[in-house]
Amino acid sequence: MSGQILHEKVFFATAGMGRKVQGRALVAKDGFSARYDLDRSKGTFSRPEHKLAGESYVGRILVLDAAKGGVATAWMLHEMTARGVMPAALVLNAVNPIMVQGAALADFTMISGFEVDITQAIPNGAMVEVDPTAARPLIRVI
Amino acid sequence: MRAGELGPAVQWAIEHQIKVGQYLGARDFVGVSQAHVMADTESLGDAGVEWLERMAALPLAQRQVRIPTITDPRGTDFAAAHRLKQQPWMLDLERRAIAAFEALGVLMTDTCINYQTIMPPVLGEHVAYGDTGVVIYSNSVCGARSNFEGGPSALSAGLTGRTPRYGYHLDEHRKATLDVEVSFTPRELNDWGALGGIVGRLAGDYWQVPVISGIDRVPSSDEMKHFGAALASYGSVALFHMTEITPEVRRINTVVSFGQRMLRHKVGEADIRAFARLYVKDIEQVDLVVFSAPQLSLVEMREVAGLLDGRRASIPLLVVTSPQVKPDADRLGLTARIEAAGGTVLAGMCFYQSYAREMAEANGWKRLATNSAKLVNIIGGYGYKPALMSMAACIDAACVGGRIAS
Fold first, then answer.
1. Domain count, chain B
2. A56, A129, B193, B300: which could form a disulfide with B296 (CB 3.0–4.6 Å)?
3. A138-141 and B263-267: which strand pairing?
4. Does B150 contact A15 at a Cβ distance shorter than 8 Å?
5. Ramachandran category for residue A107: left, alpha or beta (phi over 0 → left; psi -120 to 50 → alpha)
6. Within this chain, do residues B126 and B179 fall inside the same structural domain, yes or no?
């Protein structure tokens, strides 16, 4: 499989922005929208139907399926970052432009686009490193 | 622009756009004729307003948008904020945001139905619109070309007059990717929303373009509005086609490449009923009724007024429209009829963009009935338990203390 060194648990993304970060992964085969899914004051997933409902996302590296919902996330990532109540990074199978625009404004770490389903590849709770500055942006299980 | 010769606001805007464009594979820019900016302070927060104020403090010549730039709904209706128990700090933040946007030359239209009330884009027009409902309607029904442009990016487009050329500015992304055959043409707006929600779930992400066949008549603008808003909300979808109806697809082969294979789905009335039941189960009574998301057209305002004539709402009934429709609703007596029946007409805001969590806590609201599938999809995250019902059923519930007819 090109681009995947499975025994080292490194997965390459097609695009990335932000700086290199490490943290514990919070993984679900579900979407991400700051407006729809989060209680941003508490730093938890709040939409009852979300697979991470009730979980804190603060400081976690979120590994999720696809960017969802509306345009508010573009402002909200900036607002969350300013208050320090935000994930450490976002790792997504598929982005929409809003997530990219929000990450760009907030100077937020995000990578996306994999040859595998990244929500199946990264174990929930694993310590991972996300490096969008590498020649090929990547996530690595430490 | 990048050298800063036009000032730091334009310099920031073009750098932001380059960063976004590079991530999404844009090769160049495309000129845009209009921008539409999400501007509510529940999204912006203190940090966003302070960021805007720094830009607004620049010299006049360095802080003016260069194309018509309008705004999405605010976080309040100042005239009715006390009735919603919104707090003074929310209104202060809104006033600061408005002052900053106005200093940038932005027109505070406060609407998510600009395609019905301000200046609908035309076939092939490149624009930079925020609000997913605005984008999907403009792309699909009008044939305009826009991606979802969040607040910072839409403002950037206003400042630079261009946007990165990726996604739905390009012909190749406007081809259908999934085929949805519908055997039931909805009649009620909530059913149009339910159909949008179902197709949105099937589509799943921003890069999918559903083509819908089997719709047996040309839907009205309000029906397209509810269908598109729900499709964009549930699926993050920005473009759909409807065979023999929307302008880019008079026939299905105009949006399907030769030899292209697509997943085919069938959706019928039973699916739409099942979708609505997902939300109404376990709710026998609601605390309030909300018509919002998108803001109501004048035609919808007339329908609400007609359904309320001679009756009295005994729980809060919020009817949210645009600042452009509201004066006509006033002039034509619709506002007076709705408010005489106990309703509250709000203008320039949208329910979920208006500190919905804080309003719930201040008013003791938990269970909400609406005919908007988009609102149903969003409002659960703010702690509400929503029910999706027809406009008539919502008003019936409002007039019997919130009880939902079984």
1. 3
2. B300
3. unpaired
4. no
5. left
6. no
Q: Least CA distance to B231: which residue of chain A?
A: A69
Q: Where are the beta strands (DSSP E) in B228-280?
A: 241-242, 263-267
pLDDT (tens digit per residue) in B199-252: 999 998 899 999 999 999 999 999 999 999 999 999 999 999 999 999 998 766
- Cβ neighbours of residue B243 closer than 8 Å, sequence gap 6 or more: B211, B212, B213, B215, B249, B251, B252
Domain range holding A126? 4-141
CB contact (8 A) between residue B47 and residue A83: yes
User: Where do the DSSP E strands lie in B268-384?
Assistant: 288-296, 317-321, 344-347, 367-370
**Same domain (yes/no): B85, B183:** no
Q: Do A66 and B236 touch (CB under 8 A)?
A: yes
| Residue A58 forms contact with B (CB below 8 Å) | no
Does the beta-carbon distance from B206 to A100 stay under 8 Å?
no
A66 contact B CB<8A: yes
In this structure, the answer to whether residues B46 and B194 fall within a common structural domain is no
pLDDT tens-digit map of B361-378: 999 999 999 999 999 999
Question: Which structural domain range is residue B54 located in?
Answer: 8-170
Is A75 in contact with B204 (Cβ distance < 8 A)? Answer: no
Indicate the residue type of B313: A
Binning pLDDT at 50, 70 and 90, where does residue A2 land?
Answer: very low
> Residue A105 and residue B152: Cβ atoms within 8 Å?
yes
Q: Which residues of B touch A66 (CB under 8 A)?
A: 204-206, 236
B350 found inside a domain: yes
In a domain, residue B406? The reply is no
Residue numbers of A between 14 and 53 with CB closer than 8 Å to B: 15-17, 31, 35-39, 41, 46-50
